[in-house]
Amino acid sequence: MKPYLAFSVFLALLISSFAAGIDSLLRTERRAQQDVDHALSLTLRQCSADRIDADTIRVYRSLITCAAVRDTAYLSVAVTDDDRRQQPTLKAKTGLTFSRLWSLSDQRASSVLASLAALWLAGSLWWMRRQQQVLPLPTMQLGLLCYDENRQRFTAGGEDVHFTPMQQTLMELFWQAPDHLLMQQDICDRLWPKKPDASATLYTLIRRLKPTLDQVAGVNVECDRGRSYRLTAK
Q1: Confidence of residue 137 (pLDDT cuts 50, 70, 90)
Q2: How close are the terminal C-alpha atoms of the chain, in Å?
Q3: Contact 203/112 with Cβ under 8 angstroms?
Q4: What gap in Å lies between CA 185 and CA 193, rounded to an integer?
Q5: Which residues share a beta bridge with 148?
Q6: What DSSP designation does 73 have?
Q7: What is the per-residue pLDDT for 206?
Q8: Helix (H, G, I), strand (E, B), or coil: what is residue 14?
């Protein structure tokens, strides 16, 4: 999965969670306002609208159905111009803070979407990390010769090149060296560390390796007066 696609799904879930939460919050606010407006309407039928006293407040709050809103609701007086005369009007207020509204709203859908977003993000990060671990390592090429570091095998034209164990070790040393250049003494020290003079053995190894590289992979082994060896493409 592409990183941008995983992030797009995560972002869509996160936005959906936020939208669901805000929608539930607004619906709760509307229901609370409708509750206090209805309570005020009933209060005005029972009490005088000319003044607000303790009895008016008591009746108003008793008619509010939601206990949480009942504790915070209040009445206010708004002055409006009616035919150039100022007319006082009672307004019902819920008195609910944002945090209180949030606690009263149903946030289950928002929580589920937020949890899915978190799980998707965690799963996507795990998957991408796992994919990075199993991705094939970069392959260098010389002539037709390539080295597959995952399989630790040399190939030419898509086919495995079969070396003896000693040839394989020598080829890996060449492959890891800058410009595929190795000093003769370094090769001897790596391949035959306990042998005082392994130059003749190395010469034989190189002589037997050359035909395979030349015929199968299009690669030469150049020798610099017995001091160094280097792989080059034909």
Answers
A1: very low
A2: 40
A3: no
A4: 10
A5: 153
A6: -
A7: 93
A8: helix
Helix, coil or strand: residue 157: coil
Tell which residue, 208, 209, 186, 210, has the closest CA to residue 198: 186
CA distance 232 to 224: 13
In whole angstroms, what is the distance from residue 91 CA to residue 95 CA?
12
Tell me which long-range contacts 59-65 makes (C-beta under 8 A, separation of at least 24): 60/92, 63/38, 63/39, 64/35, 64/36, 64/39, 65/35, 65/39
Contacts of 16 (CB under 8 A, 6+ apart): 113
Domain boundaries, the chain: 3-133, 141-233
Rounded to whole angstroms, the Cα distance separating 32 from 95 reads: 10
Q: For the chain, give the number of residues.
A: 234
The DSSP secondary-structure symbol of 136 reads P
Distance separating alpha carbons of residues 174 and 114, to the nearest angstrom: 54
pLDDT at residue 136 greater than cutoff 70: no
Answer whether 0.70 is exceeded by the pTM: no
Full DSSP string of 167-212: HHHHHHHHHHSGGGEEEHHHHHHHH-TT-S--HHHHHHHHHHHHHH
Reported as a single tens digit per residue, the pLDDT across 67-83 is 889 889 988 877 666 55
CATH architecture, domain defined by 141-233:
Orthogonal Bundle (1.10)
* Amino acid at position 133, single letter: Q
Q: If 0-12 CB within 10 Å is exposed, 13-18 middle and 19+ buried, where does residue 84 land?
A: exposed
